[in-house]
Structure formats: C-alpha cells, structure tokens
Amino acid sequence: MKAICLLCVALLLSPLPALARSTSVYLTAPDDPRAVTVKGVGDGRADDSAAIQHAIDAAAVGGHGGVVFLPSGRYRISRTIFVRSAVRIFGVGATRPIISLADNSAGFGAGVAAMVSFTGEDQYRVGNVPVPPPTSVPANPNIFDATSSTFYSALSNVDFEIGQGNAGAVAVRFRVAQHGFLRHIDFHLGSGLAGIYQAGNECENLRFYGGRYGILTEKTSPAWQFTLIDSEFEGQRDAAIREHEVDLTLVNVAIRDTPVGIEIDRGHSDSLWGKDVRFENVSHAGVVISNENNVFTQIGFDNAIASNTPVFARFRDSGKTVPGQGRHYRVSDFSYGLKLPALGQMGEFATDVTMAPLVRMPARRAPAIRALPPVREWANVRGLGVKGDDETDDTAALQRAIDTHRVLYLPMGRYRVTDTIRLRPDSVLISLHPSLTHLYLPDETPAYMGVGSAKALIESARGGDAIVSGLGLWTGGVNPRATALLWKAGAASMVNDVKIQGGGGTVLTKGSPIGFGDPKARFDGQHPSIWVTDGGGGTFAAIWSPNTLASAGFYVSNTRTPGHVYELSAEHHYRVEIVLDNVENWEFLAPQTEQEVRDGVNAISTEFRNSRNILFANYHGYRVTRSIKPMDAAVKLYNSSDIRFRNVHVNAESGFASCDAKGCGTYLRASKFPFENAIKDMTGQREVREREFARLDLPATPVPAATASAVPVSPDVRKLADGFYSIAGAAVDAKGKLYFVDRQFHRIHGWSQAEGLSILADAPLDPVNLAIDRSGRLMVLSSAGRDATVYSIDPARPSDVRVIAPTPAKPRDGAATALPVNMWANGEFADRIDPATYQFPTLADFFLRAMAAPKPQEYVSPDGSLVLPAFRVWNQGPDDHQGWRWSDSLDAYGLVTARPGERVVLTNASENRTYSGLVGAAGSVTDLQVVADRGGESVARDAAGNLYVANGQVFVYDAGGKPIRRIDIPERPLQVLIGGADRRTLFILTHHSLYAATLQ
C-alpha cells in the first residue's frame, strides 16, 4: 500500500507526457540573502495559494518590492494570487515549477478569472480608495489595480496549467508599466480563456498551448506599447492573439494550428508591428484588421513567413482580403494605414504588400534575445570581496572580480563605486531587480566633477559580446562628467532589463543624499545616460532611462554596427530623449518617450543627425497631459536620410481608473499641448503635420535645404496677429467680433476688422474657454479652484466680474448650451470586456455614451440665455495653482453652442472623426452621426452646412460629408470659427498666431 501511494505521488510530480515541457532557466537559486523563498507543499494536491501569497507579501514589506524564489514543484491554487508592485517571482530548480488550476475550480468557470494578478497601489498617494480588478477569485475590494506607476513587477521560469471546466480562467492578468515582464513560461491552457489577459510592457520566450486565446488584451496601464519576443502559439480555439489598442509589437513569434493569428476587435484599432512572424496552418486569416480608414489603425509586417495560411490579412469591415501566394510564401513588407508620400504632405489610406511564394519554409530565425549563462556559472560578487552595503567603496573589488570572472551575479544591494568599472569583451553582469540592485556614484565624486569629456560608470570593451542584465545604474545628483553606461560592445552584445535611476520609481538611500529637489542637482547637467558609440551596437531590450539630470536618455553616435532596440522607454529629459548622431543600420521597435510638465516643456522626443538606414516602428512620442507649453515637433531631422517610419503615434492624452467621494470610474484627459507636428526636417524645413500614420519613407538622399517656404500655404490665408504664447478658447459675438484667450498670461483678446487686435482683460483669473450670451457678456470657464470656476464679464466693463455658481440642471426655454468642440472619449484604461459574451464595446460606443450622459449641474449666464454643463473636473496635486485640473470642457480648444433640439458638430479626437449630434437636456448629445472622416482639434460649420475641420490643416467638407478642398496654414490650426461682420471670415487660431481666410 505504501508503495502504491509513493507511485501516485511520483506520477503527480512527473511531467505529463501529452504536454510539451521547456527546460528550467534557473536550475538552482542564486544566493541572495534578501530574497524570499516560497514554503509550499508543491505536490499538486495541497492548496498552495496561501503559501505563495505569503511569500509575495513578505517580499513586498517596505513598499519597494523584492525577489521571490518558487522552487520546483506543482503548486495547486484555488484563488487569485496577487503580485504586489515591484515584486519579482523566479522559478528555481531542476524543473520549472508549475502553478496549476484543478478541474472545475470554483470561481473560474465563467467570466474572466485570473490565477495570478499583477496589482498596483495608491498611485499619487492621495488617499484614493482601491480600484479592485474585476477578475479576482474571490472578489477583493482592498486591491489596487495596476497603474502607469506599477514598475518592476515580473514573473519568470514558472509554467501554468489549467484543468477542465475552467472556461473563464486566465493564467496571468498582466497589468504593468516599465520593467514589468513575463519570461520563460509555458501556458498549457486546456479549457481556459487565455494565457495572458491585459498584457503589458515586455515578454520573452513564452509558449501558449490551447485555450480559447493565447493572449487577450487591450491598452496597457500606462498606454505604452506591448512587445512580445521569441514566443510561440499553438492550437488556440479562436485566435492566438485577440487585442486592440495595445500597440502590439512582435519579434520572432510563431503562430500555428489556429483559425486566426492576430484578431483586432471589432470597432477598434491598433498599431501592430511584426518582425519575423511565422503563420503555420492558420485557416481563416493571419491578421484580422478592424476599423478601416481610421488613423489609429496602423498595421505593418517585416519579413513574415506563412505556410498553409490562405489569407494573410482580412479586413473585417469591408470584407477585403490579402490572399497568400501558394502553400508557402514570404511577406517581406506589409503596411496598411495612413501613408505619407513625403515630408510636408498629408496622408492617404493605402495598403502596401510585397509578397512572393516560397518553395519551402525556411528555418526559424535564432532568438532575438540571447540566453543568460546557466546559474552554475554565476560567480557571486559577495564571495569575491564586494560588499554592496551602501557604504564601502566597491570599485577595486568589483573591478578585480570582473577581471578574474566572466559571469558575475550581484545580489540585491547598493554597490558604491568611485571610478569607471570596465568590462571585459565577454563580461556578463547579472542581477534580478534593477530597482533594488544599484551600481552608483556618490554625489560629487572627484573623478566625475568639473568640465571634461564623458566618464562612464560602466564602460564596455570595444567589440565583444558583453551582457548587462537586470541592473540599476545611478550616476548621483552631482557628477557633471558622468554617463551611466558607455557601450562600445559589438553586434552580439546585449543590454536587457536595465534601469537608469533618477526620475520615476527611483529608490535612493544615504549613499547618494542629494535628491532631485536639491539646488545642487542640476537638470540637464550630466552626459547622456546610455551612450552607444565608437562602433558599438547589439541588442537593447526593456530599457528604462528617465534621469532628468542627464542630457539624453539613449544616445547613439559614430557607429555602423547593427543595433536592435526593443521596448525602450526614454523620458523626462530637458532637451531630447533619444539621439542618433552619425548612425547607420539600427532599428527601434516600440520606442516610447515622455516629457513631463516641469522638466520637459522644452524637450523633443528624438533627434536624428547625419544618420541613415534607420527603422522606427510602433513609435510613441508622448507629452504628459499636464504640459503647459507648445512644442513644434516630436522628431527633428538634421541631414538624415533613408529612414523608415512605421506606425507613428504622437499624443498627449491619458486616462486612469479612480474612486473617490464622487464614485468610481474610468476617466480620460487630453492635453492642448501635444507636439504640434510628428516630424520636422530641419535641413529642408518640411513638417509632418499628421500625428498618427502608418508609413513614411525618407529617401536615400537627404532632402535639400528649402530655398522657399517648405510649408504649403493657401493663397487666401492671411495673418491677423502673432506673438502669442498659446491661444485658444475663442468665441464670436453677435457682430462677428472674435474673442480668444492667451492662457499663459491670463489675457482675453479681441479682434475685429475695424479695431484690429485688442486686450479685453488680463486679470489673473485663469481663463481657459469663452462663450458669449445673448446680452454680449462673456462666460469664462476658468481653471481656478478645485472644481474649476465660471464667471461672466462685460466687454464694455471687464472689471465687472460675476462668479457663476453651479446650479441643478433643468430645462431653460430658449437657452443655448455650450459644449466642448473636441472630446477624447473612448473608455480606455478599464476592463471593458463583457464577461458573458467576451466582447468589447467599440470606441464609438463609448463616445456615444459619454455624449449622451446628462450633467447633474450647470452654469447659467446672468441673462439666462446660455448654459454651460458642469462637466466633472479631475484634480491632481494641491488645490491651489500648483495643482492641475482636467475636464472635457477645460481640455477642449473651444466651445460650440446650440439650443436643445438643434444639431451641433464636434470632433472625437480618440477616433479622429467628426460628428453631428442632437442637443438634449442637461448637456446631453444624442443621435450622433459621422459627418467627416477626419477629426482633431476643432470644427466649424457655415451657413451652407460646409464643415471646416482642423486636423493638421483645415479640411473642408460639403454638407453631405464629401471632401471638397483643403486650406493650408503656415502653422498647425487648433481652433476654427466663423465670424466677421458678414459671417464670411474663417478665423483660424494656432498656438502663436491668428489667421483668417475668406469663405468661398
């Protein structure tokens, strides 16, 4: 009897013959005294939920995360395991540990139910109550959902199995921001819904077997891209990947034995880029494309291979297909979306395909990401005299360890050095948590002070195949000559999972006491953080470089050695985030930049100097919603050519889920200050006004310097005034006189043909948007106060300021309603899936719902003729002028008015479409109909029903929605209105100038 029981146990622990098994990456646990080891049973029968959760919670004590080791075994769970912020779990042992869900587990049979869920915290430390993920088993009201500040969380070398009768089960709900990853995981999904739900940041070496979907996802928590590398899908019932708005980037991914490879949800868009993707036995379509003729739909493939896949691309809405060529074929180039013919031109939708049949399928390419050496080769630096105690100068000991050992492991700690650490050509430096393992310079290190050339914290040897993985680098608050990583290694080298400390998510300690608020810590006062030069190249994956003290986050110069950059986040620098200077043969897949309000108002995203043969794909150029200053372009080019831009997204909107005294919800906010243009060629002085597009190829020969204006201007456009900081919020009175706001200086200007430019008011009352009541008084929406303020002034006596208090909404006979002319409403940043049907509402559904919602309060002009609905205001920061305020009406470039029962036109920027809607009670707008296939900053309608849409230029449509002409403006148009004494003048506001054109 005893022998039989032992046999049963052996069978439970042995691999199931029907399931493919990958080898363990970490055959032994690295020696790290600060790591926590799970003390579970691991026999496949006992419930190990509590043991795993206990270890995670123990690692999270202190609020900065930690490392958890999960030994080999089979761990059955019965409830959701929550991975706390910045906790990293690594499976260790001769076989990969397995987290399993038994047949018919309670709570996992329907809906969406996560086995493991990545969670967040109170993002802004403002006391918000939790926003619990709706996928927990059982429901837990005390869990904060992940946010854009959920950093460093990870899971690696742990497999999943889902038993029968668990139709709602997903293995991992993976909501994370920078430095979150899943790596080296097999998902045996059985009856389950998906392996990953709500994907984020970067994943490597994943294998999905069975399930309804391998990955089911929408927008990531910070709205950055999601990159999947060296992974496989096999045997999914519906599709390998079903997604939308996740900005999916695929590198060396194989999809086989499934109806659909990648399905974009109905009514939704995505920026999808795939390099070296294989489709094998995909019966319905390699990719299903939805939401055609929308600028946010950007689809591209580079070197896709297909076998027994009769349709490469299927367009859901039109039914069009791109068929394959024969049994085996190669798609060397595929692009669908808005295509720009050249710099300085607007785009048109196009499909570009280069396809050829193959005699046979080629072998799969080598992995894009090199494997780390096995743990048995890792020499622990603590055993080599390196302390990592935040006090000892480890320079000599660490250099000696590098000189004598090829592979070094740095346990969690703070490693203080005072001179450059020089790598061997074959050096490998490994740590497991870049937030808790720092190599750093103390403040005011003598060798790094004064004026001089860049001096590295770590410097690679020239050429070679060195690796740096999982390490945090911090150059201190005051070390003006410092650069964190000077990389000269060769094409086979790799930098992976490396964080440049400084900026968001940095944990500083006594070893470097000067903080960012210290006046000694000069922003833009150090050399670039990561500097690849002198023939350097290689692979750079999952890099985060946000140090505001550095002049750039990622700088490449003087190299033709190929470079491959995957999921780079370069943020918060004063001048520029990414620089390429005299560079050839590089590709950046899913690069993301961000400029903050205090430190990035003068910064651009990317600068190309004397560079060529560069690919930029699935690129995000983002400015935070709090931005307060215009900036002309995200990317600037100097004497550069042969550059391929694919899937470009330049934006400044964001969203969040929040609960407070007013309730819970998902809120969107949009800035008036995204980059005005996507690209500006400084040599030829040509601009790319389109901020969302799929394809632009710069020719191999640089565009010559312009001998005349490179910006097209329509002959009837005339400048009325200029010299403004940023103007918007305009309105026209009954006589056709224009009033508008220059918000930076609190100024309300007027303009008429008879009077020219005037200043009506400049009291510091934070005016944002204007509307004019029947008596001629201006209703002013102000950003002052926690929930904003509305006041009324008389143009004849501007000192007559009357504050208007909000009152309950009610019908008001004859009163016009003022509404935002542009909105951003698409319900993003929330779990929107219907748990019964597994369908998502479309973008248009959310816009219709947002517009149809009545507002409980309103502001009424003194004469009762004008009503401004009280849109909900969201606050960030203090209640005074140091905080920020957002609402649909504050975020708009202006207001449009109509009476209930009349139709109004406005744009939905999140769809890039213009709508007409019926104004109803309490600010509601219903019966929304698309009237123009472009939308953007604003729209105006003339007496004949023609529409004037500001979207890079002014696009004119007739009353039936047919494009009839375009009005080209010297600067990007932001708000358009019709006025003048005869109502034949189209006023056009840009940030810095006021223009006009005569209506035809």
Kindly summarize this structure in a few lines.
The chain has five helices and 79 strands. By secondary structure, it is mostly beta strands.
Your description of this structure?
With 1000 residues, this protein is mainly beta. The protein has 3 domains: 223-368, Pectate Lyase C-like (3 Solenoid), CATH 2.160.20.10; 378-697, 3 Solenoid (Pectate Lyase C-like); 717-998, 6 Propeller (Neuraminidase), CATH 2.120.10. Helix content is 5%, strand content 45%. The chain contains 5 helices and 79 strands. The strands form 10 sheets. It has a 45-stranded mixed sheet that branches. A 5-stranded parallel sheet has the order 26-28-31-34-37, covered by helices on one side. Strand 50 and strand 51 (686-688) form a beta hairpin. Residues 1-17 have low confidence and may be disordered.
CATH topology of the largest domain: Pectate Lyase C-like
What would CATH call the homologous superfamily of the largest domain? Single-stranded right-handed beta-helix, Pectin lyase-like
List low-pLDDT spans.
Answer: 1-17
Structural class: mainly beta
Number of spatially distinct domains: 3
Sheet with the most strands, sense and barrel status: 45 strands, mixed
Strand content: over 45%
What is the overall number of helices? 5
Shape: globular
End-to-end Cα distance, whole Å, is 97 Å
State the helical fraction.
under 10%
- Quickly give the CATH architecture of the largest domain: 3 Solenoid
CATH class of the largest domain: Mainly Beta
